[in-house]
Amino acid sequence: MCDDTTDAEDSAFLAARNLSRRDFTLLGASAAALTVMSGCTPSSPAEGPSGAASGTGAAAPTSSATGTAAAGAETVSRAVTIDTPDGKADAFLVSPASGKHPAVILWPDIAGLRDTYKTMATRLAQAGYAVLAVNQYYRSSPAPVLTGLTEWRTDEGRAKLKPMIEAITPAGTTSDAAAFVKWLDAQPEVDTAKKIGTCGYCMGGPFTFRTAAAAPERVGAAASFHGANLVNDTPDSPHLLFTRVQASFLIAIAQNDDERQSDAKDKLRAAAEAAGRPAEIEVYPAQHGWCTLDAPIYDQAQAEKAWGRMLATFQKSL
Q1: What is the β-pairing status of strands 74-84 and 87-96?
Q2: Mean per-residue pLDDT pooled into runs of 10, the chain (318 residues)
Q3: What are phi and psi of 77, to 5 degrees?
Q4: pTM higher than 0.85
Q5: What is the reported pLDDT for 73?
Q6: What is the pLDDT of residue 48?
Q7: DSSP string spanning 67-129?
Q8: Which residue in 203, 282, 213, 208 sits closest to 246, CA to CA?
Q9: What are residue 101's DSSP bridge partners?
Q10: Measured between alpha carbons, how far is residue 166 from residues 67, 71, 116 in Å?
Q11: What span, in angstroms and rounded, lies between the C-alpha atoms of 109 and 111?
Q12: Helix, strand or coil for residue 44?
């Protein structure tokens, strides 16, 4: 998970490969730039929170293409505001330019909803999904709270996020997820005959479990990438939720997370098998955060592998 130990592990990992954190960040930035140039991001930035539209707001078309969609595939996106039991959540909705599509709820990492996750959401939309990238910190602030993952690694960034993280509870995340599912089912871009998917990164990983439990009759697939604290000793540990869901799971674990909690993958497998839930659980040869484009530890090869497994899971289960 994202903490001081992870930071030290990342530095040691890079040093073993004769790379400084700056070198690896530049490599990750280059990969992100290639992704953007290949068309994985809107042609212009999405409207910020100050101009957030309601669920029926106008959409601005964008053009893009990736290896997961036909060349020239177009997407449309808009900023939206969703009513939840705890207030109004701001989010980013992006989908193919026409038609109805299975919906996916995307939970960002600890640094929150920002341009990187809008880019990733847009790429997923190009694969044929209506993607809602949410601001998990809406109780405290509209997005973006931080501009990037490296800002979280600063004393100022951590101090800023600490009270916002504390404001998020398992019960709150579950009620948020239920509200997001209900809202998506009312949108013209969403095919309600199809199941909903969810994906989450870092702190968003366990949120996918809670999303599946919040609306078991609607959520058909959940993908967790370097998810934090998926197995713990509390009564509401994410791994105990398999009995309350009807979804298939993809759980991609970072190698350093596995080293710190080597029995987590086994407990996840055992819990999934006991509940009769399909679950692909794999430890990837990459560090915590490897799937996020602006992460200092971003690993393009392993991120692409994980992305492909997510698409396969969604295609089978949604």
Answers
A1: antiparallel
A2: 52 51 45 37 28 32 35 84 98 98 98 98 98 98 95 95 98 98 98 98 98 98 98 97 98 98 98 98 98 96 98 98
A3: -140, 155
A4: no
A5: 74
A6: 28
A7: TTS-TT-EEEEEEEEEEETTEEEEEEEEEESSS-B-EEEEE--TT-S-HHHHHHHHHHHHTT-
A8: 213
A9: 190
A10: 39, 43, 24
A11: 6
A12: coil
User: Reduced to 3 states, what is the DSSP secondary structure of residue 3?
Assistant: coil
C-alpha 50/C-alpha 246 separation (Å) is 37
CB 51 within 8 A of CB 71: no
Q: What pLDDT was estimated at residue 95?
A: 98
CA 314/CA 235 separation, integer angstroms: 29
What is residue 299's predicted lDDT score, i.e. its pLDDT?
A: 98
Instruction: State how far the Cα of 28 lies from the Cα of 2, in Å rounded to an integer.
Output: 18
Cα 182 to Cα 18, 20, 128, 155, distances in angstroms: 49, 46, 20, 38
Report DSSP letters for 205-235, one per residue: HHHHHHHHHHSTTTEEEEEEES-SS-S-SST
Nearest residue to 294 (alpha-carbon basis) of 115, 162, 153: 115
Length in residues, the chain:
318
Distance between CA 198 and CA 275 in Å, rounded? 19
Instruction: Please give the C-alpha separations between residue 160 and each of 110, 132, 134, 220, in angstroms, as whole numbers.
Output: 12, 25, 19, 35
Name the residue with tokens 């212009």.
Answer: 44
**CA dist., res. 26 & res. 24, Å (int):** 5
Note the pLDDT of residue 7.
55
Residue located via tokens 């969609």: 69
Euclidean distance between CA atoms 91 and 245, whole angstroms: 25
In 3-state terms, what secondary structure has residue 309? helix
pLDDT score for 56: 30
Contact 41, 53 (CB under 8 A): no
End-to-end CA distance of the chain: 29
